[in-house]
Amino acid sequence: MSTAFQPEQYESQLAAKRERLEQLLAPFDAPGPEVFESAREHFRLRAEFRLWYENGEPHYAMFEQGDKRKPILITQLPIASRQINALMMPLLDACKADPILGRKLFQVEFLTTLSGQALITLCYHRPLDDTWDAPALALAEQLGVQLIGRSRGQKRVLQTDHVVEVLEVAGRQWQYQQIEGGFTQPNGGVNQHMLGWALNAAGSNSDDLLELYCGNGNFTLPLSTAFRRVMATELAKSSVRAAQENLRLNNMDNVTLVRLASEEVTQALTGVRPFRRLQGIDLSGFEFGTVFVDPPRAGLDPATLDLIKDYRRILYISCNPETLADNLQTLTKTHRVVRCALFDQFPYTHHMESGVLLEQM
């Protein structure tokens, strides 16, 4: 996480990102991107800090990338949520005052939500036993948070290991269980913009959606309202469990969730091989007209590119515009880019999220 914070330069930095995205998409005759800005400060809902000890006293520390020897000691972090900033020093003071909480504590991780919930993980270089529970529970109640203790091979959960986020998309509220250690979008405000854009781009459909890399169902939930049925796929077991819970929390009954990797989805849909995990699921009953992908930074593999080129529409969210452009070299042989967007998830860094809607030619 970058320590850079220069709100006076935000507009110029965002303009540079827009120019970079336009240059990458220019070979594909893409329209100008719709740009979704971030809040200038307090936009990041997650943060983790190493502790740096001077004269036996712990301090929150961050480091410039590639340099772990020169700490930047901090008491506040303007890019982090107001809730994180409010919790930082009371938590550290409590750990200083109680040797059971503070002994060999080396890292603190915060997960907060737009809905006002917070989960804090304390990481130790020592085993934790029952003596840790009582002071930790007292601290959790004092701060109004969920608290988890971690050490090597150990996770002590006092109450729950998750928070519940509430996101509003197109006037509807969605609940998301966010599990400690699981992936969540760090910028909740921009995430709502992404979900709203994807739903608007999807439009209203009488056929079905195939979603690859669904994670905890971040996009699955709102997109399910735009299609008759959805088949959503994800490989990570923890994400699948979270997605299942999120479907339950929101009473969604038109989504079929399958634990498959993207290459396995290709094999299943093309009939190359059967999967036990698909028992009871009639793939022939789906009429997929749109495919939604939100792949990792490496982009889509050749087999997945070959699979999705046969769909009428492709909705592609990318965390790496370079690999998006690389994938478009293949996809624009069969499709044209009709919409694109820039989502400034990571202000004050060079990273950006982007989205494109492609329609078959």
Can you characterise this structure?
By secondary structure, the chain is of the alpha/beta class. The chain has ten helices and 17 strands. The mean pLDDT is 94. The strands form three sheets. The chain has an eight-stranded mixed β-sheet with strand order 1-16-17-15-14-11-12-13, sandwiched between helices. The protein folds into two domains: 7-40 and 187-360, Rossmann fold (3-Layer(aba) Sandwich), CATH 3.40.50; 46-163, OB fold (Dihydrolipoamide Acetyltransferase, E2P) (Beta Barrel). Strand 9 (162-169) and strand 10 (172-179) form a beta hairpin.
Keywords:
361 residues; alpha/beta; Rossmann fold; OB fold (Dihydrolipoamide Acetyltransferase, E2P); 2 domains; 8-stranded mixed sheet; 7-stranded mixed sheet; 30% helix; globular; transferase; rRNA binding; EC 2.1.1.35; SAM-dependent_MTases_sf
Instruction: Please give the domain count.
Output: 2
What structural class do the secondary elements suggest? alpha/beta
**CATH architecture of the largest domain, please?**
3-Layer(aba) Sandwich
**Secondary-structure element string:** HEEEEHHEEHEEEEHEHEHEHEHEHEE
Major β-sheet annotation: 8 strands, mixed
Strand content: 25-35%
From the N-terminal CA to the C-terminal CA, the straight-line distance is 41 Å
CATH topology name of the largest domain:
Rossmann fold
Q: Radius of gyration from the CA trace? A: 22 Å
Mean pLDDT: 94
Number of strands: 17
Residue share in helix: 25-40%
- CATH superfamily of the largest domain, by name, is Vaccinia Virus protein VP39
CATH class of the largest domain reads Alpha Beta
How many helices does DSSP assign? 10
Strand order of the largest sheet: 1-16-17-15-14-11-12-13
Unreliable segments of 5+ consecutive residues = none
Overall 3D shape:
globular
